Amino acid sequence: MTTRLTDIVPIEEPLAALERDLIASYVARAGEDLHDLRTRTDGGARNLLAAASRYASTRLTEIEARFHYVHRLHGDASLSA
Question: How far apart are CA 54 and CA 58, in angstroms?
Answer without folding.
Answer: 6
